[in-house]
Task: structure prediction
Amino acid sequence: MNQESEKAAIAAVHAFIESFNAQDHERHAETLNYPHIRLANGRFTRIESAEIFAELSKRGESRLAEEGWHHTTVASLEVVHSGNDKVHIALRNDRCHADGSVYHSFDTFWIATLVERHWGIQFRSSFLHASQVGAGVANRLLP
Result:
């Protein structure tokens, strides 16, 4: 295990969640490495650039509002494996209403990578299913 890599990867996770909660789409896109791969709802999505990710993130705002989302918290985080340029992380994320009540919890597995001296999330595989998010609203690209 590589403690230095683990710290950098965990910092990337927190930057991802903080920028997502702020709905700062450009800063959010900077927390990733590209191409960014997402496995959710039984399909892979490949996003080639920060510009494309930021645009997709902006489009997700209305879906979040429909489900009553206010913020996401990391309920648990466990580093599974770590090396010099890659860290595997198991997470449990909670989606919360404005009053802090959790309305949806889900497990997700992320891979943080070191690319050109930048630690970012490069792969996410989430168990965020439409039937679990109420009223069939699924947000396929966001945590």
